[in-house]
């Protein structure tokens, strides 16, 4: 088979579409013919150099495809089933897994981060990663769901615990995780203010249900949020940008507000004025991926067609360098998808 691999960290030039052997299927594993795989910012970070990545390495965290072979202990799926892939890996036996906090697992991992991923023609993976593909979605749409939806749901519902009528501010509204956050917050009956960088992306956020959308290229976010909230600030800030937006995030956060963050696509080093934090009784929450219950709950919303993956562009995997360049330049509105 062919796969997207890196043999070293670096620029897009280290990305190779090359021949690799198909692994054997153990008794608890499933062989999947990949029909589509998503591209995430995680792929860029892995390519550039996350410590501990076992080189050479196949990239990609989520995807969709058709079951081609199953191990002797697998009964949850059968050959020919159309499936999507849940990227979180966990041991099932540690104290966190026993509490249903698989994303805290002592052996925590993500496909395409610490083990070979989905950007290949065939994937062999444990049965716990395999879920039925919703019949109303294409393979490309299904491939763009798991990582961003699981992450956004865990941030908003599990960590920030959003409630009806609260105001939620979402950065990067046109990103994969941002587009999911808008839909999840609206499903929870929140008032959503979204921020993005162009009028095209602004229109997309409006179509997803955002109540107010700010084009931060031309508009002042603090002034707009003050107007939209009658000067009270927002209840929740959905943060995944980092240093570039952190100061604004804290300024627009209201009394008792929660800032929840899952990443730092810009500078990871930020400052906090503790006087504002304790006087306003605010919370700063970290969130990584989501546990199994988060995935099951957000998958239920998908199956009920209450949320929808947004696909921007589809690249052939052999054009992986072009796809990385496209994502890295922030050109997308929704998910960038790869097909073999």
How would you explain this protein's 3D organization?
This protein is α/β, with parallel strands linked by helices and 340 residues long. It has helices spanning 41-49, 95-98, 139-143, 146-159, 176-187, 199-208, 221-228, 243-252, 274-279, 292-303, 320-328; strands spanning 2-6, 16-19, 29-39, 57-58, 63-70, 82-85, 88-89, 109-110, 122-126, 130-132, 167-170, 191-196, 212-215, 234-239, 253-261, 283-286, 311-316, 335-339. The model has no long low-confidence stretch (mean pLDDT 95).
Quick take:
With 340 residues, this protein is of the alpha/beta class.
Secondary structure elements and their pairing?
Blueprint: E1 2-6, E2 16-19, E3 29-39, H1 41-49, E4 57-58, E5 63-70, E6 82-85, E7 88-89, H2 95-98, E8 109-110, E9 122-126, E10 130-132, H3 139-143, H4 146-159, E11 167-170, H5 176-187, E12 191-196, H6 199-208, E13 212-215, H7 221-228, E14 234-239, H8 243-252, E15 253-261, H9 274-279, E16 283-286, H10 292-303, E17 311-316, H11 320-328, E18 335-339
Parallel strand pairs: 11-12, 11-14, 12-13, 14-15, 15-16, 17-18
Antiparallel strand pairs: 1-2, 1-4, 3-5, 3-9, 3-18, 5-6, 6-10, 7-8
Helix pairs in contact: 4-5, 4-10
Cα gyration radius (Å): 20 Å
Biggest beta sheet attributes: 7 strands, mixed
Strand content: 25-35%
Average pLDDT rating: 95
User: Element order, helices and strands?
Assistant: EEEHEEEEHEEEHHEHEHEHEHEHEHEHE
Count of separate DSSP helical elements: 11
The helix-and-strand class reads alpha/beta
